[in-house]
Design a protein that fits this description.
4 domains, alpha/beta, binds zinc ion, 3-stranded antiparallel beta sheet, binds 3-methyl-2-oxobutanoic acid, TIM Barrel, globular, 8-stranded parallel barrel, disordered C terminus
């Protein structure tokens, strides 16, 4: 058996199912390119049947990505599989990923299918996908809560029909590591033909065990791990790519397993996902959290100065944290900026670089040192965001101890200028109220958080908001040296995402949306 583990990244599909984390096509393409640079083996680009927008994004990613395999998700129905193939067919290495639930509770209450119908439906789905490609993955949804013998029969049927990968999901994050590892061993020992295919594991983190379960599955013989960057995903999220990759890397002598991941790209990919989705990485997050390599206790600092390895099991550089982070200042020109941007891994056109340079100069006029993090935020705001419906032209707020906070805002809406003024209990409230009035939107602010990108009172502020409107939720992010401007940008970014969601409604893969009448699944 090979000791190489295939990394199947599903940030763009399962990760996108994180509450509020919708990404537009341009953002998805940027992320896909970075995932390829990171070295993922398979990149799940989306679920084409979910919305025409999702299908289009998968199609564009498939055309762009040349080395990684590009997968599209499909329920076990001909229509979904046709849509998935239509979206990935131009990829250099396309994959169709089809799935069907196999646990008693899902078969009885959701699918209303008998065991035989499920086996038949799974086999028919795989056979249909075989009309298009040999690269087919079959997933047994809720596999960890499925009767093991029945699961072996389902996998046998999928393998017989032509699946090249079979995947065991712990869909609801219920399994325990020893139990999950034993289930993988059982499947390997009792499924005819399993030696001809790759066995994959896909875990969710409802009990905080996704990484442990995935590692247990790999140690028991699975050779594909389905993961997301920063562990984002439905509910409590998925197994985090960086934890699996670094776990295998740091403990390679113990596990004997390797991956193809360029570990130095991990931190950059993590920041990109956070910037694009608006989901903040918790400071104590393993591998990529801001505190992952910070030593506060004196006794630890003393140890690290004498020998880093006393309290560090890996060097920050291994996952892409740079040692020298001060990069540019106000005398730096476009050439220096381009070099730095390239070193950060971005390939910008002249026009894009100029946009970033204008913002960079603005910032450098106010601050002595511009850090990598600052530049990445400028790239995210100026380049990664697709043309948006609402754009901030200017914002003025007047506030103080003896007056009613007032905001004046000018916005472009579909390219046309609109302005207005309003009040609030504070300057940010005044700005949000005014934006709401001008745009005629009705979104409610449900979360607001502010973060300093670097240290010092002159740091750029990064604001994240979560807003909701008629059952839809979106995260918005904005950065600026001025916290009021950063807040207004975040709010407007949230409104743009809501607008995108309204135009591209996504079928979230909740149990109810998968309900199919008996026998209708294929
Ligand atoms: O969690 C799950 O079961 C899934 C499948 C579609 C693989 O995401
Ligand atoms: Zn999942």
């Amino acid at each position: 058996m090979t000791n190489r583990v295939l990394i199947f990244d599903t940030t763009l599909r399962d990760g996108e199912q994180s509450p509020g984390a919708s990404m537009n096509s341009a953002e998805k393409i940027h992320l896909a390119v970075q995932l390829e640079r990171l070295g993922v083996d398979i990149l799940e680009a989306g679920f084409p049947a979910a919305s025409p927008g999702d299908a289009e994004a998968v199609r564009q990613i498939a055309e762009r990505i040349r080395t990684a395999q590009v997968a599209a998700l499909a329920r076990a129905s001909e229509k979904d599989i046709d849509l998935a193939w239509e979206a990935v067919k131009n990829a250099a290495r396309p994959r169709i990923h089809t799935f069907l639930a196999t646990s008693e509770i899902h078969m009885k209450d959701k699918l209303r299918m008998s065991r035989d119908q499920v086996i038949d439906t799974a086999a028919r789905a795989v056979r249909h996908a075989r009309c298009y490609t040999e690269n087919i993955e079959f997933s047994a949804e809720d596999g960890s809560r499925t009767d093991p013998d029945f699961l072996c029969r389902v996998f046998e049927a999928a393998i017989d029909a032509g699946a090249s990968t079979v995947n065991l999901p712990d869909t609801v994050g219920y399994a325990m590591p020893d139990e999950f590892g034993s289930l993988v061993s059982y499947l390997i020992a009792n499924t005819k033909g399993i030696e001809r295919v790759v066995l994959s594991v896909h875990c969710h983190d409802d009990l905080g065990l996704a990484t442990a379960n995935t590692l247990a599955g790999l140690k028991a013989g699975a050779r594909q791990a389905e993961v997301t960057i920063n562990g984002i995903g439905e509910r409590a999220g998925n197994t985090s790519l960086e934890e699996i990759v670094m776990g295998l890397h740091i403990r390679r002598e113990q596990t004997g397993l390797t991956t193809n991941i360029q570990t130095r790209e991990i931190n950059r990919t993590s920041r990109l996902v956070s910037m694009i989705t608006g989901i903040v990485v918790q400071p104590n997050k393993a591998i990529v959290g801001a505190n992952a390599f910070a030593h506060e206790a004196g006794i630890h600092q003393d140890g690290v100065i004498k020998n880093r390895m006393t309290y560090e099991i890996m060097e920050p550089e291994t996952v892409g944290f740079s040692a020298n982070r001060i990069v540019l200042g106000k005398h730096s020109g476009t050439h220096a900026l381009r070099k730095r941007v390239e070193a950060l891994g971005y390939d910008l056109s002249e026009e894009e670089l100029l946009k970033v340079f204008t913002r960079f100069k603005d910032l450098a006029d106010k601050r002595k040192e511009i850090l990598d993090e600052d530049i990445e935020v400028l790239i995210a705001e100026e380049v990664l965001r697709a043309p948006e419906r609402y754009e901030l032209d200017y914002l003025t707020v007047v506030t103080g101890t003896v007056m009613v906070p007032t905001a004046t805002v000018k916005l472009k809406i579909d390219g046309k200028e609109n302005q207005g003024a309003g009040f609030g209990v504070g300057p940010i409230d005044a700005a949000f109220n005014t934006i709401t009035k001008i745009t005629g939107t009705e979104a409610k602010l449900v979360r607001f958080s502010i973060n300093a990108i670097s240290r010092g009172t002159d740091a750029q502020a990064e604001v994240t908001v979560r807003i909701q409107d008629k059952g839809l939720a979106a995260l918005g992010k904005g950065a600026d040296q001025d916290i009021f401007v950063a807040s207004a940008k975040a709010y407007i970014n949230g409104l743009n995402r809501l607008d995108y969601l309204k135009k591209n409604p996504i079928i979230i893969l909740k149990e109810s949306s998968l309900k199919e009448a008996p026998g209708e699944a294929v």
